[in-house]
Amino acid sequence: MVSPNQPASLDCKKVVVVGSSACGKTCLVNRATTNAYSKVYQQTYGADLIIKNSSDGKKGSLKVWCTGGHERYRPLLEQFYVDVHAAISQSSFMELPFWYNEVKRNSPEALIILVALKSDEADNVVIQPQDAMKQALDWNVEFRAVSAKTGTNVNELFEYIIDAVHRSH
Ligand SMILES: Nc1nc2c(ncn2[C@@H]2O[C@H](COP(=O)(O)OP(=O)(O)OP(=O)(O)O)[C@@H](O)[C@H]2O)c(=O)[nH]1
Ligand SMILES: [Mg+2]
């Protein structure tokens, strides 16, 4: 059995995906790992653990904790932020500092990536990419815009994380 605060093994780095409820975290991880997409919303209860391998199968793997964004889970999530190598976050703009601070406080060295999800719905998104990009610059973190629906930039995002965490940690 794997516990959330168990350190990742040498070639399998721990990644946590955080953000507000229904922002698209599970769909992003599903697209990255199974290349599937569903428009039916199924809330994540607590957190799911998924293994993501690099596309060539050689560069190493990620142990991805995809957390549930509903407020009722927030007191439980702190255990997932410990020893994190990388964190992916997207949410309403008001909540973004909350997720950023949670990860930063528990894993100050983690690679943090601010991800604008649902880029296929450019006219409807809650955070405009230019605002997210500005926030990422202020925090000195990476910024990516992706769509789990179309798959745009999803593989690139995970390959970037695999390269970065296996190179620097
Ligand atoms: N248009 C569009 N909709 C998306 C995309 N990704 C997710 N959605 C939709 O957004 C809704 C929520 O997606 P989830 O991935 O389940 O959201 P979540 O962040 O995991 O939610 P919690 O588990 O409650 O934290 C679903 O109805 C998805 O179909 C996307 O790239 N484009
Ligand atoms: Mg989910």
From TrEMBL:
Alphabetical list of CDD domains matching this protein: Rab
Entry-linked Pfam families: Ras (PF00071)
Originating organism: Chytriomyces confervae
InterPro entries attached to this UniProt entry: P-loop_NTPase, Rab, Small_GTP-bd, Small_GTPase
GO molecular function, one term: GTP binding
PROSITE patterns noted in UniProt: RAB
Highest taxon, organism lineage: Eukaryota
UniProt keyword list: GTP-binding, Nucleotide-binding
Protein's name according to its UniProt entry: Uncharacterized protein
